[in-house]
Request: fold
Amino acid sequence: MKTLRSSLILLSGLLLFSCSLNYDEQVNSEGVVPEFIFTNTRFTRYENKNRTMELEAEKLEQYKSDSASFAKNAVFTTWKNDGSIDTKGSCVLLSINTTDKIYTLFNDIILKNEGQNVEIHAQNLRWDGKSEQLVSGSNDTVHIKKDNLELEGSGFSASGVSQSFHFSKTVHGTITENQEKGTEGQ
Reply:
């Protein structure tokens, strides 16, 4: 019993003296606490006097230290240089990194690209604005509608440069042919 008590006293002494917390260091709260919080907001971005993007959100938080913003219940639109709508979309959560041009969308995502007549539904997508790549998680299901084609699969990736998309895992879907009078059998 005496040995156990001595061991406990020695152990507690080691723990007490080996503690290296530095209480003089201040915690950088810029990465933890938002610089701005906006509620029920609309944010519009202009480049060269042309509207390029509009974001509406129930809540938008902006952080100073890492150029990050987070939006809740986001609805957004992007425009082409000629002023026509490029893409419309919505999601429950949106993470924006303006420095790296990385946009991560979560939950009930709907994207509609007007020029390509494509509609995408997903739960998890990541857009890299520098490489123009849109990807899902390897096991996440993505649903696509384009013209007479409707597909659903996982391991989705799309390229804005080549305007193509790819599924790396199981895919299923339908192609609907519209047959007009006089064109049967063509």
